[in-house]
Write a structure and sequence with these properties.
Length: about 550
């Protein structure tokens, strides 16, 4: 009897699916067996291994997923999750993953914009560093060791426990993981005074592709250079950073002044571009741009909020503002004096009187579905250019958008482009980041992502060119991707790599090729391992 072709197709799909399931099952069972058999303490490592058969698997997987775009039934799931409580667990995991052909995804805080720290389209496991989060502060030497699984909030809290006049120039969002944040550079509110988080790293501990634990001396200056801004997931597993703490006054001053278009927001933002990177290095004024309801019933408008941190008292700040930015109309009543640690809560948007304990909360409230992009601005955008931006914010999708500008200058301009892999130094007035909260449902979500891309296209004439620069910690797969399997050519990787790292990309590729020639540590935008032969020919 002849079997219908549709039945043959269905049978083929069933057999293929069964084969894939069997293969995946074999891989993960062999991988887990390898972990327990090669561990110094099988009981210890078995307590930090989660497979889909484990009742805690889903909760462990979901806990550190910050972007709801990647918390769907369709999102690829890891065969195994490991939450190491000891460095030896990581060493064994690397060796066993190499032996059994599993890709590794390294998760610190889970804030990767494209989910690359916990999603892959090939068989993979997640190394979740949530249990490696100790912070040891030495006030006398003004240094600290912080494990990669700690959050920025946990780091700030630990510093404040020991000193009210020491700080660290890391980010604004307290739930971001320190491991990934520092790996990509890491900017915050005191970058004009002290540079990036990565600029203030003085040692590190990393586990390489061979399972060796290396510090700065044993890894060498090339690898130490690469991990401070070359982004995570390319060179090994950074397990801890030794950081240099920076001095801050016991009292700092903050303010937030919001103006709508009807209150000359366009003129104020245009003027801000001429002073933001040139004012006193103790002063940072960022802007937050959103669409809001107008005072006229039923109408919408754009609001620009000027948010500032000044490393000093209000009596010192006020003359600076009067001299450099009188147009804002700042009055002393707009300003608040507080400690530096309290300012981290203020800038993060917490209400007055919030306990510092909130810095220890690893879960952001609320979690959202997000698409983000970032540009660097080297020349002030004209008022006409800004008005075109407002026009796009007034489109339907603009209601879900937020645009943030962070000024550079100061210490950022003093550090050479090649000092670390992060190259966006002198010549940049500010960076401008675009975020849109996506609506539920594939069709609506895609529409909002497309809107973000149209906004990005509109901004092209006003931002950096050749290359159009981007920030590695704000992953954007629209810029280009590596091959899922096999090697990626230097030419292909340069499409996105030069945007993130400019001329530093060449050195990053060289370091990668030296320390991980088999390209074990890889993802869609990891630094590729490329032989001189392939690099020369662009293959």
């Amino acid at each position: 009897m002849e079997i219908p072709s549709s039945s043959l197709l269905s049978l083929s799909l069933v057999l293929l699916f069964s084969f894939v399931l069997a293969t995946s099952s074999d891989v993960h069972e062999n991988f887990v067996q390898c972990l327990t058999s090669h561990s110094q303490n099988a009981t210890s490592i078995s307590q930090v291994i989660y497979t889909p058969n484990n009742s805690s698997y889903t909760s462990v997987l979901d806990f550190s997923i910050r972007n709801l775009r990647f918390l769907t039934p369709e999102t690829p799931k890891p065969l195994v999750i490991i939450t190491p409580s000891h460095e030896s667990h990581i060493q064994v995991a690397i060796i066993c993953a190499r032996n059994h052909g599993l890709q590794i995804r390294i998760r610190s805080g889970g804030h990767d914009f494209e989910g690359l720290s916990y999603v892959s389209h090939v068989p993979f496991f997640i190394l979740d560093l949530i249990n490696l989060r100790s912070v040891s502060v030495d006030v006398e030497s003004r240094t600290a060791w912080v494990q990669a699984g700690a959050t920025i909030g946990e780091l700030y809290y630990s510093i404040a426990e020991k000193s009210k006049t020491l700080a660290f120039p890391a980010g604004i969002c307290p739930t971001v993981g320190v491991g990934g944040h520092i790996s990509g550079g890491g900017y915050g509110m005191i970058l004009r005074k002290f540079g990036l988080a990565a600029d203030n790293v003085i040692d590190a501990r990393i586990i390489d592709v061979n399972g060796r634990i290396l510090d700065r001396e044993s890894m060498g200056e090339d690898l130490f250079w690469a991990i401070r801004g070359g982004a995570g997931g390319s060179f090994g597993v950074v397990i801890a950073w030794k950081i240099k703490l920076v001095p801050v006054p016991s009292i700092v001053t903050v303010f937030k002044v919001s103006r709508t278009l009807e209150q000359n927001a366009t003129m104020l933002l245009h003027r801000w571009q001429y002073i933001a990177d040139k004012i006193d290095n103790d002063l940072v004024i960022i802007t937050n741009i959103t669409r809001v309801n107008s005072s006229e019933e039923g109408n919408k408008t754009v609001q620009v909020s000027f948010v500032s941190l000044f490393l000093g008292r209000v009596d010192e700040l006020f003359p600076l503002m009067q001299k450099n930015f009188p147009e804002l109309g700042l009055v002393k009543e707009d300003c608040r004096e507080m400690s530096w640690i309290e300012s981290t809560l203020y800038i993060a948007g917490f209400s007055t009187g919030t306990s510092l304990d909130v810095l220890l909360d690893r879960i952001p409230d609320p979690r959202i579905s997000l698409k983000g992009k970032l540009d660097y601005v080297k020349k002030p955008i004209s008022e006409i250019g800004l008005e075109g931006l407002w026009k796009r914010l007034n489109e339907e999708e603009g209601a879900a958008a937020q645009i943030v500008t962070i000024p550079y200058g100061g210490k950022m301009s003093e550090i050479p482009e090649s000092e670390t892999p992060f190259p966006h130094r002198a010549g940049n007035i500010y960076h401008i980041a675009y975020f849109v909260i996506l609506e539920e449902g594939v069709e609506l979500s895609n529409r909002y992502v497309d809107w973000t891309r149209r906004l990005y296209s509109y901004m092209a004439p006003y931002v950096s060119k050749s290359p159009r620069e981007a920030y590695a910690n704000y992953r954007d797969l629209d810029l280009g991707q590596n091959n899922d399997k096999g090697n990626t050519s230097y030419a292909q990787a340069s499409i996105w790599g030069v945007k993130y790292f400019k001329n530093n990309f060449k050195r990053l590729v060289h370091v990668k090729t030296m320390v991980d020639p088999s390209n074990f540590f890889r993802h869609e935008q990891s630094i590729p391992a490329v032989s001189p032969w392939r690099k020369k020919r662009g293959n």
